[in-house]
Amino acid sequence: MAAVLYDVVREILVRLNDVTTLFRCAMVCKGWCSLLVSDDSFLRRCLPVPEKPCGSPSFSGFFTKLRLPVGLPPSPCFVPAPRSVLGCHGLRVFSSFFPSDRQADFFDHAVPLTSRHGLLLVRLDLHHAGFNTDPSSVLLAVCDPLAGMVHELPRLEHYWDFDNSSRIGGYALLTDSDCSSSNDGHGDGLQQRTRFFKVIMLTVEKSRLHCTLHAFSSADESGWSTRSGVVKDEEDRSICTVLRQHNAVVCDGAARWLLWGKAGVHTLDVSCKTGHVSLTRMMGVQLHYFRDQLHDHPYLSIDGEGKLMVLGLRRNGRELEIWTSHKDGRSFQASMLKLKGHNLPRKGHVYTCLGERHGMILVKDNNKRVYVADLKTGVMHEVKDWPRSNGLSRRKTVLFEMDWPGFFISQLTFAAY
């Protein structure tokens, strides 16, 4: 009889398409919770995956290091975006996301590196925090701030200076959807999908495009893998250029970093599945914009359809040049967006692009103000919770996105067990 009743409940619940309502239903009892998460196909019927790859996540705010209060060493903090779901708590120190039984210094000296789909990659600077650790090894961790979970990665030996921008290249944090197809083993099963991640750390020598690639997968217990070599263009030529962006953009099955130099504008691409490294020439993106004193350094991102785009902000804060790739991923078409906002200072202010996530661009000016601009409307809103601190830059700012339906579903999964 109970099985028949659960069949009736299942037919009722499958007609719900609101994740908040499903979450509330799952909290009724363990039976309903197990019913909701025991079958992946059932959840997919309730909450179909959006056709657009960027349709579900949203920009929630950014992580950076601040001096709070004055006189203490900088600590990582989260600054919510205007009208963000996480904005109700205001500015938060990084350690407040995690259980209080962990040592405060463990998080107070963390360095945010990059993020993706609600996960955050940080470097744990335990040596400077007073822990007895080998300074020639680096400890990274993948954090889920909303779930309060931390996954420490195996220690990695390194022979470079993190403050030397000519050597350290960049980081990529990948999820299961980036690395697997529907036929892969770890791609089947909701519980496994929410736990899988892959980390790529890239170092590039400035004199020539000789890169060293370190990769770690949560599905591989062997630890870090390392490979190195000289990257050549499609004509098998070695080129001399510089990596310009520390965080990678994930597009078309590859983690991509922006670089440019005398050889032109390229992306350095690392296959999410195989780790193969290659170069792609970006045709149509004008190199003179990258050297123009009237423009900020361009920023590589993806648009709402999952295509590559390059953003070039004018330093007066009035216009944004946008190069969007065609289907081939190599040729780009330029467009111009007028930026506007209520009572925004313009004269004498210099504006800098800090990053972009899901149609929202983060901008700062030389008066320590921070804004969020909508790439559809061009409207800019000031971030009110920003404490007007010094030192904010692209390298020290990590924009944070949340896949809210995915987060709620993952919480249903953990609640069922």
Automatic annotation (TrEMBL):
SUPFAM superfamilies: F-box domain (SSF81383). It comes from Lolium multiflorum. It comes from the Eukaryota. Residues 7-41 form the F-box domain. Signal peptide: none annotated. This is F-box domain-containing protein. InterPro entries: F-box-like_dom_sf, F-box_dom.
